[in-house]
UniProtKB/TrEMBL annotation:
<feature type="signal peptide">
    <location>
        <begin position="1"/>
        <end position="24"/>
    </location>
</feature>
<dbReference type="GO" id="GO:0030246">
    <property type="term" value="F:carbohydrate binding"/>
</dbReference>
<dbReference type="GO" id="GO:0003824">
    <property type="term" value="F:catalytic activity"/>
</dbReference>
<protein>
    <submittedName>
        <fullName>Galactose mutarotase-like domain-containing protein</fullName>
    </submittedName>
</protein>
<keyword id="KW-0732">Signal</keyword>
<dbReference type="GO" id="GO:0005975">
    <property type="term" value="P:carbohydrate metabolic process"/>
</dbReference>
<dbReference type="InterPro" id="IPR011013">
    <property type="entry name" value="Gal_mutarotase_sf_dom"/>
</dbReference>
Length: 275
C-alpha cells in the first residue's frame, strides 16, 4: 500500500500583553446551514462549512481578521500545487469534550487522497489549535508525485495589526498606506519604498520590502502580528506557536516564509527545495 502522510499541529494564539485569566470558562458550539460557530469567554469565530475557513474571528470583541474580501479576512489551509486538494464539498464532524470543542473537515477525492483540516478550541485558551493531515492510499498508482505546497495562513483584511514579527531580532512596522501607494515593483514580490522615506517601515527596516526578508527556519518560538486595540488601551498579538516541528518537510531547520502581513504556517513548500 502506498502511503504518504504529513501532519502538523500548531496553535494560533492571541494575547494581551497582560493576560487576564477569568475563572469561569465555557465553550459554545452553534451550527447554522452554512457555518459552525465556536466560542469561549475570550474568542469567537465561524467556520465556513464549504471551505473550513475561519471567519469573523474576535478576541474580547476586537475583530482580528477584519471582514472577508476574496480570500482575505480569513484563516485557512490551502494547497496551491494541487497535488492534494480540497473538493469544494468538505465533509465535517463536530467533536466535543468536557472542556473543548472542534471540527474535523475531510476531503476525500476519487483516487485515494485524504485531506483533513481540523480546528479545536479549549475553554480556557485565547487561541485555536490547528491540525493538517494528508494521506494517500492507492495500490496501483503508488506515487502522487511531488507534495508541493501545503500551508495554513492567518490572512487579515485590516484588523489592529501594525507590526510584523519573525523572531526576537527580525521585526518591523508594516509599511503605511502612503508607502504602499508609492511603492515601485523591482522584482518578484519585492518593492522599493524609498519614495516615502519617513514611513515607519522605511525608517526602521529598509528602502525595500519583500516577504523573504522575514523568512526564518522553524527554530523561532512564535511569529506573528502585533498592534494596539481600537481603544488604544492595550496591545494585541496574533502568533503561530508551532507545537511539532519534526513533520515539517525539510525538518525543523527548514527555512520558509513567516510573516509579511499574512502569518504563514508552511508545512511544505518548494522554498529551499524541500518537497
Ligand atoms: C461571517 O459574518 C458574515 C456577515 O455577518 C456572514 O455572512 C458569514 O456567514 C460569517 N461567516 C461564518 C463562517 O460564519
Ligand atoms: C456535496 O456533497 C453532497 C453530499 O454527497 C451532494 O449532495 C452535493 O451535491 C455535493 N455538492 C457539490 C458542490 O459537489
Ligand atoms: C476518507 O478516507 C479515509 C481513508 O480511506 C477514510 O478512513 C475515511 O473514512 C474517509 N472519510 C470520509 C468522510 O469519507
Ligand atoms: C489510483 O489512482 C488511479 C489514477 O489516478 C485511479 O484511476 C484509481 O481509481 C485509484 N485507485 C484508488 C483505489 O483510488
Ligand atoms: C535558524 O534560525 C536562527 C534564527 O534566525 C539562526 O540563529 C540559526 O542560525 C538558524 N539555523 C540554521 C541551521 O539555519
Ligand atoms: C496609542 O498608544 C501608543 C502608546 O501607548 C501611542 O504611541 C500611539 O500614538 C497611540 N495611538 C493613537 C491612535 O492614539
Amino acid at each position: 500500500m502506498a502511503f504518504c502522510s504529513i501532519s502538523s499541529m500548531f496553535i494560533l494564539l492571541f494575547s494581551f500583553t497582560t493576560l487576564l485569566w477569568t475563572a469561569a470558562t465555557s465553550i459554545q458550539v452553534h451550527e447554522t446551514d452554512t457555518s459552525i460557530l465556536l466560542a469561549n469567554d475570550l474568542i469567537s469565530f465561524g467556520l465556513l462549512k464549504t471551505t473550513s475557513a475561519i471567519q469573523n474571528l474576535t478576541y474580547q470583541d476586537v475583530s482580528l481578521l477584519g471582514t472577508v474580501d476574496g480570500l482575505t479576512g480569513q484563516a485557512y489551509t490551502d494547497f496551491p500545487s494541487n497535488t492534494f486538494t480540497t473538493t469544494g464539498n468538505s465533509s465535517y464532524e463536530i467533536v466535543t469534550g468536557s472542556d473543548w470543542a472542534g471540527v474535523v473537515f475531510t476531503d476525500n477525492d476519487t483516487v485515494g487522497s485524504t485531506v483533513q483540516r481540523s480546528w479545536f478550541l479549549h475553554d480556557s485558551e485565547p487561541g485555536i489549535h490547528s491540525f493538517v493531515r494528508l494521506a494517500y492510499y492507492n495500490d496501483t498508482v503508488t506515487s502522487k508525485g511531488e507534495l508541493g505546497e501545503s500551508r495554513t495562513m492567518f490572512r487579515p483584511n485590516g484588523g489592529p495589526w501594525t507590526h510584523i514579527i519573525t523572531n526576537r531580532e527580525q521585526w518591523a512596522p508594516l509599511p503605511g498606506a502612503a508607502a504602499v501607494a508609492n511603492e515601485v515593483v523591482v522584482q518578484d514580490a519585492t518593492w522599493y519604498l524609498g519614495n516615502t522615506p519617513d514611513d515607519p517601515y522605511v525608517v526602521a527596516e529598509s528602502d525595500y520590502f519583500t516577504k523573504y526578508q522575514f523568512a526564518d527556519n522553524q527554530t523561532n518560538k512564535a511569529h506573528g502580528l502585533f498592534g494596539h486595540s481600537p481603544d488604544n488601551l492595550t496591545t494585541l498579538g496574533a502568533w503561530w506557536v508551532v507545537n511539532q516541528k519534526d513533520t515539517f518537510f525539510g525538518g525543523p531547520l527548514h527555512g520558509d516564509l513567516m510573516v509579511d502581513g499574512i502569518i504563514y504556517n508552511k508545512q511544505s513548500t518548494n522554498h529551499g527545495g524541500a518537497t
